[in-house]
Design brief:
Elements: E1 3-7, E2 10-14, E3 19-25, E4 28-34, E5 37-40, E6 45-51, E7 55-64, E8 70-81, H1 84-90, E9 94-95, H2 106-126, H3 131-152, H4 155-159, E10 161-173, H5 175-289, H6 293-307, H7 318-333
Antiparallel strand pairs: 1-2, 2-5, 3-4, 3-6, 6-9, 7-8, 8-10
Helix pairs in contact: 2-3
Length: 340
C-alpha cells in the first residue's frame, strides 16, 4: 500500500519499489512506474497500484480418483504481474487518493482465477488415476499437468499474469482410504518383521544346536579320554602289582634261601656244639673214671654247692644235732668202718 501524506489540500504519494503506480488526471496518464514519489490533488487524480513482486498462492482443494475416492490436494503457485498496465486495465487495482487503500479486491480475483484453473487440470488428471497410483506418482503428475495447464491458459497472459512455478505439496486421501491403503504395506512390513524374527530365531536355534553338538562332542571326547585314562591306570596298577609280586617273590626266595642257609648254619653249629659237648663229656667221664670214690664225692658236693641257692643262716634244732651226733658216733664205732 502506498504511503500518502496530506499537505494543504495536496497529497504526496510515495510508492514502494515492488509496486507499480499509475497516476491519471483527466483521462491522461501523468505518472507510470514502480517506486514513484509525487504530489497530486485528490479531487482530480485517479490512482492505481499494481504489485509486481513474486507472490505465493497456497491452495487446497478436493478431487476424486478413478474409483471415486476423495483426495485432498495441497499445492502452491508462484506468480507475478508481468504487465501492470494490462492488469490495471483488466482488474480493479485503483486505490483511494486519500488513504491509498484498494477500493476492490484484485488479488482475490487473481487467486480465484489461478485456483480454479489449477483445480480444473488437477481434477482432470486425478479422475483417471487410481488411489494407489495417485499416492505414489500423483504428485509429479499433478504438478506437471497444472504447470502445463496454467502455461497454456490464455486468460492469464491477457490479464498480465505470469506463472513462475507450481509446487504440489501433498496428495492425501480420506482417513479410511488411507488406512485401507496402508494395511497391505503394514501387513507386508509385519510379515517381513516376522520373517526376520523367525530367521533370527532359526539362527539362534541353529547356533544353540551347534553349541550343544560341540558340548556333546566334547563330553564324548572327555569320556573317551577318561576311558583311556582308566585303562592306563588299570594297566599301570597291574604292572605295579606284577612288579610288586615279582619283587615279593624275589624277596621271599631270598628270605627262604637265607632261612635255609641260616638253618643249615644253625644245624651245623648245633652239630658241632653237640660233638664238642660229647667230646667234652667223654673226656670228663674218662677223667672221673680214673678218680677214686672219695674224690668223686667231694666233687659232687662241690657241684652241688655250686648249684644250691645262697644260704645266709642255718638254724639247727637240738633234735637234729642229737640225731646227727648219734649217727656220727655209730659210724665211728663200727668194726669195719661202715655205718651200723
Amino acid at each position: 500500500m502506498a504511503d500518502i501524506t496530506r499537505r494543504f489540500g495536496w497529497r504526496h504519494l510515495r510508492g514502494a519499489p515492488t509496486a507499480h503506480v499509475r497516476h491519471q488526471r483527466a483521462g491522461r496518464l501523468v505518472h507510470d512506474g514502480p517506486g514513484l514519489s509525487f504530489w497530486y490533488r485528490s479531487l482530480t487524480a485517479a490512482l492505481s497500484e499494481v504489485p509486481v513482486d513474486d507472490r505465493e498462492l497456497a491452495m487446497t482443494f478436493h478431487a476424486r480418483t478413478s474409483d471415486f475416492q476423495d483426495v485432498a490436494v495441497q499445492a502452491t503457485v508462484t506468480y507475478r504481474i508481468s504487465d501492470p498496465g494490462v492488469a490495471a486495465a483488466r482488474l480493479d487495482f485503483s486505490v483511494d487518493p486519500d488513504t491509498g487503500v484498494w477500493r476492490g479486491a484484485p488479488l482475490e480475483q487473481l487467486a480465484t482465477l489461478l485456483t480454479e484453473t489449477a483445480q480444473q487440470h488437477a481434477l482432470d488428471v486425478l479422475a483417471r488415476t487410481p488411489p494407489s497410483a495417485a499416492l505414489v506418482d500423483g504428485v509429479a503428475a499433478v504438478r506437471d499437468r497444472v504447470a502445463a495447464g496454467l502455461a497454456a491458459e490464455p486468460r492469464l497472459p491477457a490479464t498480465g499474469i505470469e506463472v513462475v512455478a507450481v509446487r504440489v505439496v501433498a496428495l492425501r486421501p480420506e482417513p479410511e482410504v488411507e488406512r485401507a491403503l496402508r494395511t497391505p504395506a503394514r501387513e507386508q512390513i509385519q510379515q517381513e518383521a516376522d520373517r526376520a524374527t523367525y530367521e533370527r530365531r532359526a539362527v539362534a536355534v541353529e547356533r544353540e544346536r551347534a553349541i550343544a553338538e560341540n558340548e556333546l562332542a566334547s563330553q564324548i571326547e572327555l569320556a573317551r579320554r577318561e576311558e583311556q585314562l582308566v585303562d592306563q591306570r588299570g594297566t599301570n596298577a597291574r604292572r605295579e602289582a606284577e612288579e610288586h609280586a615279582a619283587a615279593d617273590a624275589v624277596r621271599a626266595e631270598a628270605e627262604a634261601t637265607r632261612t635255609v642257609r641260616l638253618a643249615k648254619a644253625e644245624a651245623q653249629a648245633a652239630r658241632e656244639v653237640g660233638e664238642a659237648r660229647a667230646r667234652a663229656q667223654a673226656a670228663w667221664l674218662r677223667v672221673h673214671a680214673e678218680v677214686d670214690v672219695a674224690t668223686l664225692h667231694a666233687l659232687t658236693g662241690t657241684r652241688l654247692a655250686e648249684n644250691l641257692p645262697r644260704i645266709d643262716s642255718v638254724t639247727v634244732s637240738p633234735d637234729v644235732v642229737t640225731g646227727l651226733l648219734a649217727r656220727f658216733g655209730a659210724a665211728a664205732g663200727g668194726p669195719s668202718g661202715e655205718p651200723a
